[in-house]
Specification:
Blueprint: E1 2-4, E2 9-11, H1 24-30, E3 36-38, H2 39-45, E4 48-51, H3 59-74, E5 81-85, H4 94-105, E6 113-117, E7 131-132, H5 139-147, H6 158-185, H7 189-198, H8 206-221, H9 228-241, H10 243-257, E8 265-270, H11 281-293, E9 299-303, E10 305-307, E11 314-316, E12 326-331, H12 334-343, E13 353-357, E14 364-365
Parallel strand pairs: 4-5, 5-6, 8-9, 8-12, 12-13
Antiparallel strand pairs: 1-2, 2-3, 6-7, 10-11, 13-14
Helix pairs in contact: 3-4, 6-8, 6-9, 8-9, 10-11
C-alpha cells in the first residue's frame, strides 16, 4: 500500500498494472482506476510501515512539519509493527521520534513495536545505513530487509546509524565542495584541465548535491554552537549554496563574450526533477537559479526530459528553440546533458545555440 497524505487514502500497489509504470509521475498522469482504502485502516493492518513524507520546509519549520506527519501516522499503528523512518534526522533526534510515537500510539518501543532509522543518500535506491531497535530477525523479517537491500549483518543501533549517516553525507559533500572551490579559483583553461586530471574528476552536477544540502541543514540544527562538526557543515553548506552565483556568473560571461543581446537571447535550464522526492532542495535551488537568470534576460524557461515507456532514452518535449533568438542551454544533471546531446544533432543549424554544462567546471561548448 502507498498512502496519499493529502487525501488520507491508501492505494494497493500490488496491482499488475502498477508494474507498467516506471515512476510515480507517469502513474498519476494516466490516473488508472485503483482500489482505495482509508489511511487509518491501511496503517492499522500493516505489519511494517515505511515513513517517507515529502518535506518542503527546512529548519524548525521542517521539524514541525515532520512531527505533524509523524503524529498522523503513528496514532494508527498496531502492536507488532516495525516502523521504518526514512527522512534524515539530526544527531540524537531519533529518541524524540520514538517518544512521539509512544505518546500518540500508546505503545512501547521494544515491547509493542520496533523502530528503524533507514536514511537514503539522495539518488540512491537502498538505505545508506540501517539502525534498528530490533537486532535479531526471523525469516520473514530478514526477507523484508532484503527487499530494501539490507543484510542483517549490516544492522546497527539507531544512535550509531545517526552518527554514520551524518559522517557519510558530510564527507561526500565536503569532497564536492573542495573541488568546486578549486575550479572557481582556476580561470586558465589549460590549468583547469591539468587540475581536472590530477583530481580524477567525474562529472558532478547540482542534481548530485542539491538535496544533500537539506541533510546538512538538518544536521546543523542538532549541533551546539562552537562544535567543530558544525563549523565543517556550515562551511560546506555555504560553498555549495554559492554554486548558484558561480553558475549565473558563468552565464553572464557567456552572454557578454558572445555579444548576445538580452532581448534576443533565450536561456533554458534543463533540469529533470522528481517532484515526488522526499526532499525539496532541488526545486528550491532551481527556483533560485531561475530568479537570478531573469536578472540577465527576460526569456528564461525550464525544460524536463520525458521518458517514453517503450524507449530507453529521455527526450525534451515541446518547442524549445526560437529562430529569432540565440539560445543558451544549461544542463543540471548527467541525464539532462545526455538528452541535450541527443537533441542537438536535430536542432536547426540556423539557430545560434550555446550549451553550458552545469557541472563543477561550468564547461561551455557551442
Amino acid at each position: 500500500m502507498i498512502i496519499d497524505e493529502n487525501l488520507q487514502m491508501a492505494t494497493d500497489m500490488q496491482s499488475p498494472q502498477i508494474s507498467t509504470y516506471h515512476n510515480v509521475a507517469s502513474l498519476l498522469e494516466d490516473e488508472p482506476l485503483m482500489a482505495l482504502i482509508p489511511m487509518k485502516e491501511a496503517i492499522s493492518k500493516a505489519s511494517s510501515i515505511f515513513f517517507a513524507p515529502k518535506i518542503r520546509k527546512s529548519g524548525e519549520e521542517g521539524k514541525a512539519e515532520l512531527s505533524s506527519r509523524l503524529k498522523d501516522v503513528a496514532k494508527h499503528i498496531s502492536t507488532g509493527t516495525i516502523f521504518f523512518f526514512l527522512p534524515v534526522v539530526g544527531i540524537g533526534e531519533s529518541e524524540a521520534n520514538v517518544a512521539l510515537i509512544e505518546k500518540v500510539s500508546g505503545l512501547k518501543i521494544m515491547e509493542d513495536f520496533h523502530y528503524a532509522y533507514a536514511p537514503f543518500f539522495p539518488g540512491e535506491t537502498r538505505p545508506s545505513v540501517f539502525g534498528s531497535s530490533l537486532q535479531t530477525f526471523d525469516k520473514s523479517k530478514k526477507s523484508l530487509l532484503g527487499l530494501v537491500g539490507v543484510n542483517t549483518s549490516e544492522v546497527c543501533s539507531v544512535a550509531i546509524a545517526e552518527q554514520y549517516y551524518a559522517k557519510l553525507v558530510t564527507q561526500r559533500l565536503s569532497h564536492i565542495a573542495a573541488e568546486l572551490e578549486a575550479y572557481k579559483r582556476i580561470n586558465d583553461p589549460y590549468d583547469r584541465m591539468k587540475f581536472k586530471k590530477l583530481a580524477d574528476y567525474s562529472d558532478t552536477y547540482p542534481d548530485d548535491f542539491a538535496n544533500g544540502l537539506h541533510d546538512l541543514r538538518v544536521f546543523a540544527t542538532s549541533l551546539d554552537s562552537g562544535e567543530p562538526l558544525l563549523h565543517i557543515i556550515s562551511g560546506v553548506t555555504r560553498c555549495l549554496e554559492d554554486y548558484v552565483r558561480y553558475l549565473v556568473g558563468t552565464i553572464r560571461d557567456v552572454i557578454k563574450t558572445n555579444e548576445l543581446r538580452a532581448s534576443k537571447t533565450r536561456v533554458i535550464l534543463a533540469w529533470s526533477i522528481d517532484r515526488y522526492s522526499m526532499r525539496g532542495e532541488k526545486m528550491n535551488m532551481q527556483e533560485n537559479i531561475l530568479h537570478r537568470l531573469r536578472d540577465l534576460v527576460n526569456d528564461v524557461m525550464v525544460i524536463q526530459a520525458v521518458q517514453d515507456r517503450n524507449e530507453q532514452s529521455s527526450k525534451f518535449a515541446g518547442q524549445i528553440f526560437s529562430e529569432n533568438k540565440g539560445t543558451v542551454i544549461i544542463s543540471c544533471s548527467v541525464n539532462d546533458q545526455r538528452s541535450i546531446d541527443h537533441m542537438m544533432p536535430t536542432a536547426n543549424a540556423k539557430i545560434d545555440t550555446i550549451v553550458v554544462k552545469g557541472n563543477l567546471l561550468c564547461e561551455v561548448s557551442d
